[in-house]
Design goal:
Layout lengths: L2 E2 L4 E2 L17 H4 L1 E2 L3 E2 L8 E6 L14 H7 L7 E2 L4 E2 L5 E7 L6 H18 L4 E6 L3 H13 L5 E6 L8 H4 L6 H7 L8 E6 L6 H10 L2 E4 H7 L1 H13 L4 E7 L21 H12 L4 E7 L10 H22 L2
Parallel strand pairs: 3-8, 5-8, 5-9, 9-14, 10-11, 10-13, 11-12, 13-14
Antiparallel strand pairs: 1-4, 2-8, 6-7
Helix pairs in contact: 2-11, 3-4, 4-6, 9-10, 10-11
Length: 333
């Protein structure tokens, strides 16, 4: 029996035409299934769920990140299901777009609650599929992780965060904004600080008091300088190895401001000295291939600030590369 869609989750705002008959999909737009009023039955084989969270009212920087889920979907027509670098055709995975969370017009707290409830609903009904969330600003990460933890309270969740910033600013000062999600989760006891690994910090974009907060909670962090000296692959491998023995599942959050400003014109808080696009793509492929990585979000991208969809294309490519990792994991390739 198909699952009834909750009130907090509306259908995707549009869908691409899919091939008819036995024709195999060639493009991502032809491949992703868009769920209607009824969602897939719990017993159906689904490999990946994707949903949008169009919230940006809680962003510290002025942002239209709420426009990203729509822009993200519109670019699917420009990507094939086949990745020539890895010789992988993603058409072998079943991916279902379950829609967008319903955003309250003015009350961000109501939207945050809807995100949390929807994440709980999706993880409860679909505990196996890889859950991918398209934001939205970084405040949504705390909501999604809370929802997942609520659905599976006996399981420990670890976080690997690719980000220029700690995101440990004080909720008492800023509220549940995009600068506070990791601190929210750690101080609420949803995630242990020792189970958080942040990769990508650099330059002059984190105050010393935030480092002190990270040290106090035992958060692991790696600057871009350290990461490049040691190697990104080795740094991620260390984080994965540590978490594998400590947690039941790993949540990956990609703040697109981890990218160098020259690679991310559509990111409100982009900075010099960040990751390069190829580094990010390699990182998420490696992460997607790990058996304990259960969820991914991509946040803090403003299509209205973008130039010729450059940054949104990076976001789509990032998502697809994570799915290439998933494909390799599940197929044994």
């Amino acid at each position: 029996m198909r699952v009834r869609r909750p009130a907090e989750l509306r259908c995707a705002p549009f869908s691409w035409q899919r091939p008819t008959g036995d024709a195999a999909p060639r493009f991502v737009s032809e491949w992703v299934e868009v769920a209607g009023e009824a969602l897939p039955a719990c017993e159906e084989q689904v490999d990946v769920l994707v949903w949008g969270v169009p919230l940006s009212r809680t962003s510290i920087s002025a942002s239209a990140a709420s426009e990203h889920p729509m822009a993200f979907r519109r670019l699917w027509r420009g990507f094939a299901t086949y990745n020539i670098d890895e010789d992988v055709n993603l058409a072998g995975l079943r991916v279902v777009d379950v829609g967008d969370v319903v955003e309250h017009v003015t009350d961000s707290a109501v939207t945050h609650e809807a995100i949390e409830q929807t994440a709980c609903f999706l993880r409860t009904h679909y505990p196996e599929p890889f859950l991918t969330t398209i934001g939205g600003d970084h405040s949504i990460t705390a909501c999604v992780v809370r929802g997942m933890q609520k659905a599976e309270p006996s399981k420990k969740i670890g976080i690997i965060q690719l980000d220029t910033h700690f995101d440990l600013r004080d909720p008492a000062e800023l509220g549940k904004a995009n600068g506070t999600p990791i601190r929210q989760l750690v101080e609420e006891g949803v995630v242990s600080g020792q189970h958080v690994h942040t990769i990508g910090l650099h330059g002059f974009f984190n105050g010393e008091p935030l480092k002190e907060v990270a040290d106090r909670h035992g958060i692991h962090y790696y600057t871009m300088k350290q990461t490049r000296k040691r190697g990104l692959e080795a740094t991620i491998a260390d984080a994965l190895a540590a978490l594998t023995t400590e947690v039941d599942s790993i949540y990956v959050t990609v703040d697109m401001d981890v990218l160098d400003i020259s690679h991310a014109p559509g990111v409100p808080a982009s900075t010099p000295g960040g990751m390069y696009t190829d580094e990010l793509l390699d990182a998420v492929l490696q992460l997607g291939a790990h058996p304990k990585v259960a969820a991914l979000d991509i946040v803090c991208l403003d299509p209205r600030k973008d130039v010729h969809d450059a940054t949104v294309k990076v976001a789509v490519h990032t998502w697809l590369n994570a799915l290439v990792g998933l494909y390799k994991r599940t197929s044994g390739a």
